[in-house]
C-alpha cells in the first residue's frame, strides 16, 4: 500500500452503515485517514449487501471500474454480506481484490490490516463460528445527533428467501450493561437520538445474569438521561410481544413507530416463506399497536412474486394493505438468492409479472399514504431538525412517527436549527412527506 489512506463505500441496511462506522473508526485508530474518492485512496473498501441480486451486482461493477489500478499501490477489499457469501470466489472473479471479510470477522480487522500492509495478496476473514460481537471503542459516527447501537448480530430464523442467516451468522446479543453504557456515553457526547439495531431485535436476550429481554432493554435505554428519542429496527412479528407496546406507551422517549415486516398477506405464502406466523397472529400484533394510547405509526416490508404466489395470494396482500393502512412500506420483487430454500422452489414468477405486482402495491400504498398523511394536517408535531433545503427555503425535520416534515421558520435567519427539537404545525401533506411552519 502506498499511503495509509482509505476510501469506503457502503451498500445495504443500517447494520452495514453502522458496521462501516466501526470499520472507519478502527482504521483511523491504526493511523489511516479517510479520503473522498477511490482514486485518492491506497486502500479501497466496499462494504457490500447481498439481499437482492441487484445489490450484489453493484460491487462487481465497482470493482470492474478500477481493475487497472490494482498493483499500482492500490489495495482492494470486499467486506460485508457479499464477502461472506462468495468468500474466496471473489478472488477468482476479481483477482485484484486482496481482502475478503464478513462482518463476523471485523474484530480481527487490525490483524488483517497488518497482513495487507506486509503485502499479502489474499487476506480473508470468513469464519462464522464466532460468538463475538463487533464492539469497538473507535466508532466514527456519521450523524452528529442520531447514533446507532447494535444490540444483536446475526439471525436464527430461516426465511426461505433470505441470505442474512448465511451472511451474518447465528444470533449474538450484547450485554444490557454494555448497551446502556454506550447509550450513556453517547448522551454525554451530545447525541439525543438512539437507534437500536439488529436483524431481529425482538429476539434480543441479554447474555449476562440480568437476562433482559428486548422490551426491558428498550425501556432502560429510554431512561438514559439526555436521550430524547429511541428507535429500533427490525422487528420480526413472531417475536414481537405486547410488552414492547406497553414500553412505548409508558415513555414518550420511545418513538411512535414500529416497523413490522409482514412480507405477504397470504397464509399459504407466509408458510412457504417459513415466516413462522399466520396472518391472524400478525393481525393480533397490529391490534396491540392500534389500541395503544400513543398514535404509533406502523410500517412494513412486502415481497411480491415469491415462488408460487398466485393472483389470489397477491390480492390477499393488497387486501392487507387496505386493512392495516400502513404509514409507509418498502416493497420488493422476490430475488432468488444463493443457499436459500426458495431457490429450488418450482413455479418461479416471471419478471414482468413481478414488476406488475410491485407497481400495484406501490400505487395502492401511495393512495393510502396520501390519506394517512393528510390526517396530520393542523396538528402540531415535534421534529428533530435534520437538515436544510436551501432551494426550498425549508428546514427538514423528522417526527417521532418517522415522517419527514419540511417546514419554514419565521425567525432565526442565519440560525442553524440542525439538531434542535422544534414544534411544527402541519399545513400540507403529500404521499411521502409533510409540510408545515414552526410554532413558537
Ligand atoms: N431482518 C429483517 C430483514 C432484513 S432484509 C426482517 O426480518 O425484517 C429487509 C427486507 O428485504 C426484508 O424484510 C424483505 O422484505 C426483503 N428481502 C429479503 N430477502 C429478499 C429477497 N430474496 N428478495 C426480495 N426481497 C427480499
Ligand atoms: Fe432474513 Fe428472516 Fe432473518 Fe429477517 S428474520 S434477516 S428476513 S431470515
Ligand atoms: Fe444487505 Fe447484509 Fe444488510 S445482505 S440488507 S447488508 S444484512
Summed up, what is this model?
The chain has 440 residues and is α/β, with parallel strands linked by helices. It has 13 helices and 19 strands.
* Strand residue content: 15-25%
Helix content: 25-40%
Number of separate helices: 13
Question: CATH architecture of the largest domain, please?
Answer: Alpha-Beta Horseshoe
Poorly predicted ranges (pLDDT <50, ≥5 residues)?
none
Structural class call reads alpha/beta
CATH topology of the largest domain: pyruvate-formate lyase- activating enzyme
Listed once per kind, the bound small molecules are: S-adenosyl-L-homocysteine, iron/sulfur cluster, FE3-S4 cluster
Shape: globular
Keywords:
binds S-adenosyl-L-homocysteine, 13 helices, OB fold (Dihydrolipoamide Acetyltransferase, E2P), binds iron/sulfur cluster, alpha/beta, pyruvate-formate lyase- activating enzyme, Rossmann fold, 19 strands, 440 residues
Walk me through this protein's architecture:
The protein has 440 residues and is of the alpha/beta class. It has 3 domains: 5-125, Rossmann fold, CATH 3.40.50.12160; 146-374, tm_1862 like domain (pyruvate-formate lyase- activating enzyme), CATH 3.80.30; 380-438, OB fold (Dihydrolipoamide Acetyltransferase, E2P) (Beta Barrel). The chain contains 13 helices and 19 strands. Strands 2-1-3-4-5-6 form a 6-stranded parallel sheet, with helices on both faces. The longest helix is centred in the last third of the chain and has 24 residues, at 351-374. The protein is globular and about 60 Å long. The chain binds S-adenosyl-L-homocysteine, iron/sulfur cluster and FE3-S4 cluster. Iron/sulfur cluster (SF4) binds at residues 155, 157-159, 162, 164-165, 199-200, 236.
Amino acid at each position: 500500500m502506498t499511503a495509509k489512506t482509505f476510501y469506503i463505500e457502503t451498500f445495504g441496511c443500517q447494520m452495514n452503515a453502522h458496521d462501516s462506522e466501526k470499520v472507519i473508526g478502527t482504521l483511523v485508530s491504526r493511523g489511516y485517514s479517510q479520503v473522498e474518492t477511490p482514486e485518492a485512496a491506497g486502500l479501497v473498501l466496499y462494504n457490500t449487501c447481498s439481499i437482492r441480486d441487484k445489490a450484489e451486482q453493484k460491487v462487481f461493477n465497482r470493482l470492474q471500474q478500477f481493475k487497472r489500478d490494482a498493483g499500482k499501490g492500490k489495495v482492494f477489499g470486499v467486506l460485508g454480506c457479499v464477502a461472506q457469501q462468495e468468500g474466496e470466489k471473489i478472488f477468482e472473479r476479481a483477482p485484484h481484490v486482496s481482502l475478503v471479510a464478513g462482518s463476523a470477522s471485523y474484530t480481527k480487522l487490525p490483524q488483517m490490516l497488518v497482513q495487507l500492509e506486509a503485502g499479502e495478496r489474499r487476506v480473508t476473514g470468513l469464519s462464522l463460528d464466532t460468538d463475538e460481537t463487533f464492539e469497538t471503542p473507535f466508532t466514527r459516527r456519521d450523524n452528529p445527533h442520531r447514533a446507532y447501537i447494535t444490540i444483536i448480530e446475526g439471525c436464527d430464523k430461516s426465511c426461505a428467501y433470505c441470505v442474512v442467516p448465511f451472511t451474518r451468522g447465528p444470533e449474538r446479543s450484547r450485554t444490557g450493561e454494555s448497551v446502556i453504557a454506550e447509550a450513556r456515553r453517547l448522551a454525554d457526547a451530545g447525541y439525543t437520538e438512539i437507534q437500536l439495531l439488529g436483524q431481529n431485535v425482538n429476539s434480543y436476550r441479554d447474555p449476562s445474569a440480568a437476562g433482559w429481554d428486548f422490551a426491558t432493554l428498550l425501556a432502560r435505554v429510554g431512561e438514559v438521561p439526555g436521550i430524547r428519542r429511541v428507535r429500533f429496527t427490525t422487528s420480526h412479528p413472531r417475536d414481537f410481544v405486547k410488552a414492547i407496546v406497553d414500553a412505548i406507551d409508558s415513555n414518550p422517549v420511545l418513538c411512535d413507530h414500529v416497523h413490522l415486516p409482514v412480507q405477504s398477506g397470504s397464509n399459504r405464502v407466509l408458510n412457504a416463506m417459513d415466516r413462522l406466523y399466520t396472518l391472524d397472529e400478525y393481525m393480533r400484533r397490529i391490534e396491540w399497536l392500534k389500541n395503544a394510547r400513543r398514535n404509533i405509526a406502523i410500517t412494513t416490508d412486502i415481497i411480491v412474486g415469491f415462488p408460487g404466489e398466485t393472483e389470489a395470494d397477491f390480492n390477499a396482500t393488497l387486501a392487507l394493505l387496505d386493512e392495516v393502512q400502513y404509514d409507509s412500506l418498502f416493497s420488493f420483487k422476490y430475488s432468488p438468492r444463493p443457499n436459500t430454500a426458495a431457490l429450488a422452489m418450482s413455479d418461479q414468477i416471471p419478471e414482468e409479472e413481478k414488476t406488475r405486482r410491485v407497481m400495484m402495491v406501490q400505487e395502492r400504498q401511495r393512495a393510502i399514504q396520501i390519506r394517512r398523511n393528510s390526517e396530520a394536517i393542523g396538528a402540531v408535531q415535534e421534529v428533530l431538525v435534520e437538515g436544510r433545503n436551501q432551494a426550498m427555503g425549508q428546514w427538514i425535520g423528522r417526527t417521532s412517527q418517522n415522517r419527514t416534515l419540511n417546514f419554514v421558520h419565521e425567525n432565526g435567519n442565519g440560525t442553524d436549527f440542525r439538531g434542535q427539537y422544534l414544534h411544527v404545525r402541519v399545513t400540507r401533506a403529500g404521499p411521502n412527506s409533510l409540510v408545515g411552519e414552526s410554532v413558537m
